[in-house]
Structures are given as C-alpha cells and as structure tokens.
C-alpha cells in the first residue's frame, strides 16, 4: 500500500456541506467581476463574423442539398 495522499479514500473524504444562497451569490458576483467584457466595437465585429460564417454555411448546405437532390432524381429516374 502506498503512503500517497493524492486521492483520498472514501473514509478520508469529509461530507460535502452545501453552500448557502448568500455565499453562492457573493461567489457569482466575484467571478463576474473577473470577466473581461468585450467593447461595443469588438461585439459588433464578432457578430458580423458569426453572421457571415452562418450565411456562407447556409449557402454551401443549400447548394449541396439542391445538387444531391437533383442527382438522386436523375439516378433513380424521378421527375425533374
């Protein structure tokens, strides 16, 4: 048996106590103060990048759907 205390055994684990609501709220506020919030310009840039990316992916998906649909109709003899 090893003398390592890196992983406690079930007997060594103490019963976890629940955090009270006020303590939880203070911890949340403290963590939110650490957040680096984006500026208005960064937010606008991020929004536009995501919007362009989504539109491009929609166009690619639509083109593939249309092309593969026409190919399936051609292969299986469906009407155009």
From TrEMBL:
PROSITE patterns named among the record's database cross-references: SECE_SEC61G
Compartment(s) where it occurs, according to its Swiss-Prot or TrEMBL record: Cell membrane; Membrane
Ranges annotated as spanning the membrane: 43-64
Topological relation to the membrane, as annotated: Single-pass membrane protein
Organism listed in the record: Nocardioides eburneus
Major localization listed first in the record, in broad terms: membrane
Subunit note: Component of the Sec protein translocase complex. Heterotrimer consisting of SecY, SecE and SecG subunits. The heterotrimers can form oligomers, although 1 heterotrimer is thought to be able to translocate proteins. Interacts with the ribosome. Interacts with SecDF, and other proteins may be involved. Interacts with SecA.
Designated name of the protein: Protein translocase subunit SecE
PANTHER family noted in UniProt: PROTEIN TRANSLOCASE SUBUNIT SECE
Family stated for the protein in its record: Belongs to the SecE/SEC61-gamma family.
């Amino acid at each position: 048996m090893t003398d390592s205390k890196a992983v406690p055994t079930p007997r060594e684990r103490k019963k976890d106590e629940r955090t009270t609501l006020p303590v939880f709220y203070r911890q949340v506020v403290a963590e939110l103060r650490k957040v680096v919030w984006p500026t208005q310009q960064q937010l606008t840039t991020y929004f536009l990048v995501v919007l362009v990316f989504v539109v491009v992916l929609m166009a690619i998906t639509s083109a593939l759907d249309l092309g593969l649909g026409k190919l399936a109709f051609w292969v299986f003899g469906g009407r155009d």
